[in-house]
């Protein structure tokens, strides 16, 4: 199988590792706007050859793993260059704009919009992780617009990766992901910003930080180049999520200001249900 990967960061390089682990005879072609990432990918044997406009049509599969605004820019042109048996997939954390940009393309049926729920806060090919795609939840959008031949090809890979598949329309995907993923990253970034600003005046503040702080701001180490386009592309849903989040913060602030101990305990006990919810999800996923 000939596989092309556009974007050789965490998701792209990890996909190469996972494809090679299952499909031993795969030949991996890669493309990245960073010459350094491209060279590192050659050195680490993530890729065998450079992907270009001349060999794109020979690929069985092309994975696009670049910032979502760049995906919107290049996806229509990539669809112009592929062969009749080439499947295109993307891993973007937003789906509405990506699906819209190719909605009327003549080769739309060769594209499958997906969002693998996986990753880490690290970026670049050196952060690649074997097994990143294995056993995860993968959201597919507008499968009815993907030709059955290409959908079967994709499902074969997903089954070999033992993925759990969820089907959603792009709008619902972007709305729900704004709460469970995008808001989490914003919270982490802003918490880190708040503490960094305090640290300017109190140099020892990070000496006091425990594991709770570290785990909460872990996502703040994520790539700004990747997350800024996500925030802007999904801004309507994110603004709604932020308004609800700010409302809850203000309610807690007021209860603390007015010493409403019993009300705070009641709220925190209710919020503690998240342990049961997440525990059930982890059990279903075999974690």
Give the topology, please.
Elements: E1 2-6, H1 10-22, E2 27-31, H2 35-43, E3 49-50, E4 61-64, H3 68-81, E5 87-90, H4 96-101, E6 111-116, E7 137-141, H5 148-160, E8 164-168, H6 170-199, H7 211-216, H8 224-233, H9 235-257, H10 261-271, H11 274-284
Helix pairs in contact: 6-9
Summarize the structure in words.
The protein is an alpha/beta fold and 287 residues long. It has 2 domains: 2-169, Rossmann fold, CATH 3.40.50; 172-284, 6-phosphogluconate dehydrogenase C-terminal like domain (6-phosphogluconate dehydrogenase C-terminal fold, Orthogonal Bundle). It has 11 helices and 8 strands. It has helices spanning 10-22, 35-43, 68-81, 96-101, 148-160, 170-199, 211-216, 224-233, 235-257, 261-271, 274-284, and strands at residues 2-6, 27-31, 49-50, 61-64, 87-90, 111-116, 137-141, 164-168. An 8-stranded mixed beta sheet has the order 3-2-1-4-5-6-7-8, sandwiched between helices. Strand 5, helix 4 (96-101) and strand 6 (111-116) form a beta-alpha-beta unit. Helix 6 (170-199) crosses helix 9 (235-257). The two termini are 31 Å apart.
């Amino acid at each position: 199988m000939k596989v092309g990967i556009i974007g050789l960061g965490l998701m792209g390089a990890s996909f190469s590792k996972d494809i090679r682990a299952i499909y031993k005879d795969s030949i991996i072609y890669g493309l990245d706007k960073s010459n350094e990432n491209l060279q590192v990918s050659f050195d680490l044997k993530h890729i065998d050859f450079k992907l270009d406009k001349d060999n794109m049509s020979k690929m069985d599969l092309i994975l696009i793993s670049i910032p979502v605004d760049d995906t919107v820019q290049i996806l229509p042109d990539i669809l112009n260059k592929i062969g009749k048996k080439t499947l295109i997939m993307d891993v973007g954390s937003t789906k509405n704009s990506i699906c819209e940009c190719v909605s009327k393309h003549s080769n739309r049926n060769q594209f499958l919009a997906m969002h693998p729920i996986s990753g880490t806060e690290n970026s670049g090919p050196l952060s690649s992780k074997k097994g990143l795609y294995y056993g995860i939840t993968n959201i597919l959008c507008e499968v009815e617009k993907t030709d059955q031949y290409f959908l079967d090809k994709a499902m074969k890979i997903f089954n070999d990766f033992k993925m759990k598949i969820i089907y959603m329309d792009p709008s619902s995907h972007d709305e729900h992901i704004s709460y469970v993923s995008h808001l989490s990253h914003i919270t982490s970034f802003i918490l880190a910003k708040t503490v960094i600003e305090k640290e300017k005046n109190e140099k020892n503040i990070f000496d006091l930080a425990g594991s709770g702080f570290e785990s909460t701001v872990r996502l703040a180490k994520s790539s700004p180049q990747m997350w800024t386009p996500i925030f802007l592309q999904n801004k309507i849903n994110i603004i709604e999520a932020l308004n609800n989040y700010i409302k809850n913060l203000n309610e807690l602030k007021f209860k603390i200001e007015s010493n409403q101990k019993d009300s705070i305990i009641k709220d925190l006990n209710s919020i503690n249900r998240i342990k049961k919810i997440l525990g059930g999800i982890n059990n279903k996923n075999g974690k």
